[in-house]
Specification:
homodimer, 19 helices, 0% strand, mainly alpha
Chain lengths: 687, 687
């Protein structure tokens, strides 16, 4: 059996394992009972709203995908036309993963509420299982898509190193572009949706009508709960699907570009696939480790899962490197193993740093709590200070990881480090997606008027979910940074640039221009939230005005219209930033040339990563400062300090849930588009 | 007469012209009457406070300068040891310019108040003359310092092209480092001082004691007025002194590095000097054009001055290029003329764009005013959105200027464009420094209880001053960007790097690391304001507590102690960020190498410029949104919207007056330090 076929078998195994797990556990979820009628009805609205959003999103997405596919088929020559096929496959796989994740998440929320009647242990089990299905669907479908495309490549083109390098990999980079396109819609559109619904629900419901949060009389409350799923399940999933696929394909391209024998280069190109497949198994074992015993905290159970999976993944990495790469070529298998561990450690460190700057009761967050006592202005200034400071050490970690992994195994080592960070994505995403399920479960308990002890259980789950969400965001940014650097390196490889002189004036201006793009993008994203929220506010006011019976519960609010409005404005508002992200690299590539494009990619990555960390962590820190005050710190709930904290939290919301995460997409999308058009640019500029 | 000697004569003439003007006009200022006794007494406090700050600053600066000079003398070899002399000269020249500017500004403020009794025309004349002395002192002393050093170089070393390239210019780059060190203290320290005093005066005086702004019973009010001078006169002056000197020396280095005959290279190296000397004359003519006639606005008078000067400068540039460069070497004189015009146009465009995003009654500021109606959170979000958006077009202008000037005349063209932007610095600084004089004059009118019609005149002057301040900030950032790119190019020239491959892992990590530094620096600067303001608040509270007679005017507050406290904490708090800015390039240069340092410089510039524009413009826009509401827009003064606007303005203050401007210093300082240590790095790394 050739290495190629061996790799295909392994990734088929990995993807079937993941998809099989998802199927079995999804059936289990659907078997869990939901007895309470109100709970059933309301969770039905959320589930329906989530599907409405997805369907509307797909309706916009399909023509977009069709258009790009047509472009790829027409603008390319020869076999490269099949990029169009890879592209459609990538978009479909990511869309399917999002669909499954959302369906299961919106089925798990009510079941978590139900299970919470029996205490923390069963509730965590349902919520985390729901999340784990999302995690496994993402990695399973990513692997499965790659398996299909590589198998087709092998069958129709053969599996020589030259064909792999010149045709298969450039064609398959379309898969990554498909995933990115989907991520653009899910992450940017989802980010706008969730905050528009949130702000709309809060401003009219809480402030104007004076009803509590998550009250079922609020027409926007369902949209708010749908938003949690849209942003944190579908958005986060598509974002990391993109990182996962991008780093696998990028490292395959870098592997085949290493100097050495054909056999060795092929092995290096296939190793990322095998490593990722092994990571699926490690993630599954990690998921199995998440069991909370009575009296132990949910956080420690989740930690055991993620850190356990990482340890097992390290072991697998060593074994695979030993058997697959030992004695071949110039890069020692130990170096490659080290590179993967560097990535894992870097990912964990970023998580720990994020927790330090945003977690409840940490020094920086306490500082914000103290600043709340002197009003909104100091709250904002201090929070921004914390956010800016919080970017420093993660960047030090990322640069150290790049330098170290490059030191042990060259550019390929950097790619392996990125893969190492993403190897156990299955369990990390499970932890991430658990958050919104727990959050929804709490909202449902409130709306369905469950007794307070149920709400206490869901609150505990939710508190853990907030921390995991912040860590997940840090992780998503870190992996986006590494992924885009790898994609960028792969771009340089594909476009045929030998040297890009930093001092070239096009490169410098490219970097400067790239550096401002994240600001433009963030500004548009925040503006979009404002516009979409405004539409939502108008609608909620209209319903309260035209249906006066809503407040005394003689009329039911029209939840659907609110979901519709949030959906429509999210999709409308994401259009312009989306177009900018897609068109900029093409324009710069053809008008300014590949060197200017290289500068732009580095500029957008460096500036975007830092800005994204700043935004995500400021937002997270403000959120938890508010929570601390609500839980009795400083002057407590309802005080002036609390009002200031609410201002901080409101500013932080579009930071951490819209603009910040959108930047991950911007930097990866620009890099992958560049990689996909690299052969055209090479041809156009005669490189 | 050799070209070298001719250039020396011309710059001697330019500097004497500027210094002579300053002397004559300063005598005129001191002859203006100040009759009111309270006015005399209070302005005496301000003037004394400003001197206290400067003296204390120099006390910290002198050991710092001594230490760096010692380092330069010991770490260098051969003639390069004389960098220490250039360094001390640069620091002294900038310090002297700051001293003169502050002295004159604090003498002009009370005289402006007095003159305002006679209406707008005489008041503008006094205020603008005060500012113009600052402007002319800066360019005059910069030129004079260069004249002295170049003359010494010519006498002791001779004036061949080789000696110029290998010894004189590297030695003289120490002059630029001296200016940068001074700028670090004046801009960062000054930025912390001014906002600490401002916040302290506002929070205790206005909020706690309930006395109006600029009330003489407030112990911190003098410190607040001193702060305007410290930040906007001394700080802005030192910042632009640095840009001016940096871009002259940088373009001399790039000029001598152009391929061509020795004579041509020498001409290119000398041309920046001649051009700048001609710019002084143009600026003087521009200053002469600033005359307001009864019934015309002050703004149009100032505009006539700056645009008039730019037109004349363009004419001079053409004439000089024609006579000095026509027919020599490969770069045509027309190209060089065009490059200078590109710089002038870019500078003006940045000003216009800044005005668009921050000016009263502009669309973006009106949007913020509207957002104020829905509370502090939307005010902040909208303002940040405006600030982020506002960075985009200035960056487009800067990149276009770089590309165009490079297209016409290569890297040297980029340098000439930067010089073109700064050529009429004399009048631009005059307009900038006029702002705080007018602001102070208003404060003095209030504190000395002048009739309202006097206050109306000073208010009109002040309103114009706010716009010019915002434009000045945009201009300072734009020139900082171009200057640091030139210094960076000169660094590459000096360190002997042929090619810096963007794809090198050290370069990439350097860029990433560089990109996070502005965030670290801003975070520290904002934190420093918080700490210093806290010390000030404590002091004001203490005075009100221990001297209960202050409020009923039976006791006089201790203004001096407030100035002392603001001074002490400003100097203490700037220490750590200052050390980081100074030490980082040295550490990276010696540990990571010149390539990593190149990446860091580009990263810090790209990320820093964008962040600085964002911060400066958000702050400016919030400031004017508040002003609009106070002048009757939206719900007017005292309303909820006004309260939200005050929050925005308070957040914006450290943005636009501390963190944002400090970034100009950070990026230039890191570039100039790299340039100065370039010969050592070359030696150390064996390049």
């Amino acid at each position: 059996m050739s290495d190629f076929v061996l790799a295909l078998v392994i990734i088929a195994g990995g993807s079937l394992l993941a998809l099989g797990y998802s199927l079995v556990r999804a059936r289990w979820i659907y078997k869990q009972p939901v007895e309470n009628k109100t709970l059933k009805r309301i969770s039905g609205y959320i589930s329906e709203g989530a599907m409405t959003f997805l369907m509307r999103e797909y309706k916009v997405l399909i023509p977009f995908v069709g258009f790009v596919a047509l472009f790829l088929a027409l603008a390319n020559k020869g076999m490269l036309r099949y990029q169009a096929v890879s592209f459609v496959t990538g978009a479909s796989a990511s869309a399917l993963a999002g669909f499954i994740g959302m369906r299961v998440a919106t089925a798990s929320n009510s079941r978590t509420t139900h299970a919470a009647q029996g205490g923390l242990v069963p509730a965590l089990k349902v919520a985390f299982t729901g999340g784990s299905i999302m995690g496994m669907s993402v990695v399973g479908l990513a692997m499965f898509g790659l398996f299909i495309l590589l198998t087709l490549g092998k069958i129709f083109l053969g599996g020589t190193t030259v064909i792999m390098a010149d045709t298969i990999l450039p064609v398959i980079s379309g898969f990554s572009l498909g995933a990115s396109s989907m991520a653009l819609f899910a992450r940017v559109g989802g980010g706008i949706f969730t905050k528009a619904a949130d702000v709309g629900a809060d401003l009219v419901g809480k402030v104007e009508a004076g009803i509590p949060e998550d009250d079922h009389r609020n027409p926007a409350t369902i949209a708010d709960n749908v938003g949690d799923n849209v942003g944190d399940v579908a958005g986060m999933g598509a974002d990391l699907f993109e990182s996962y696929v991008g780093s696998i394909i990028g490292s395959m391209i870098l592997g085949i570009g290493v100097a050495g024998s054909d056999v060795f280069r092929m092995k290096l190109a296939l190793f990322p696939l095998i490593l990722s497949a092994a990571g699926i198994l490690a993630a599954l074992i990690g998921i199995g480790l998440v069991r909370v015993k009575s009296g132990k905290s949910a956080q420690s159970a989740l930690n055991r899962g993620t850190f356990g999976a990482a340890g097992i993944a390290a072991l697998f990495s060593f074994i695979l490197a030993f058997f697959f790469l030992k004695g071949e070529g110039d890069i020692s298998y130990v170096s490659i193993f080290f590179a993967s561990v560097i990535g894992m450690v870097a990912g964990s460190l970023i998580g720990i740093l994020t927790e330090h700057y945003t977690g409840t009761d940490t020094k920086p967050v306490k500082k914000i709590v103290k600043a709340c006592e002197t009003g909104a202005a100091t709250t904002i200034i201090t929070g921004m200070g914390v956010g800016m400071m919080s970017a420093f050490f993660p960047i030090v970690v990322i640069t150290a990881a790049i330098l170290l992994s490059h030191f042990v195994a060259g550019l390929y080592g950097v790619a392996i480090a990125a893969l190492g960070m993403l190897m156990t994505l299955g369990v990390q995403l499970a932890v991430d997606a658990y958050g919104p399920i727990a959050d929804n479960a709490g909202g449902l308990a409130e709306m369905s008027e469950f007794p307070p002890e149920v709400r206490e259980v869901t609150d505990e789950l939710d508190a853990v979910g907030n921390t995991t969400a912040a860590i997940g965001k840090g992780f998503a940014i870190g992996s986006a940074a590494l992924t885009s650097i790898i994609l960028f390196s792969a771009f340089k490889e594909q476009v045929g640039l030998k040297v890009v002189d930093l001092m070239g004036v096009r490169v410098i201006t490219g970097i400067l221009f790239g550096a401002v793009l994240p600001y433009l993008f963030s500004s548009m994203a925040m503006n979009a939230v404002g516009e979409a929220a405004f539409a939502m506010i108008e609608e909620v006011r209209r319903q309260f005005r035209e249906k006066p019976g809503i407040l005394d519960e003689t009329e039911e609010p029209d939840y659907r219209r609110c979901v519709d409005i949030s959906t429509a404005s999210a999709l409308k508002e994401m259009l312009l930033p989306g177009i900018i992200a897609v068109v900029t690299p093409v324009l710069i590539g053809f008008l300014g040339g590949p060197k200017m494009l290289s500068g732009t990619l580095i500029g957008v990555t460096a500036s975007g990563v830092v800005l994204a960390i700043f935004m995500a962590n400021s937002g997270g820190a403000w959120d938890n400062a508010k929570k601390m005050i609500e839980n009795g710190s400083s002057q407590g709930k309802g005080s002036e300090a609390h009002k200031a904290a609410v201002v901080g939290d409101t500013v932080g919301d579009p930071f951490k849930d819209t603009a910040g995460p959108s930047l991950n997409i911007l930097i990866k999308l620009m890099a992958i588009i560049s990689l996909v058009i690299a052969p055209m640019l090479k041809n156009y500029w005669g490189l």
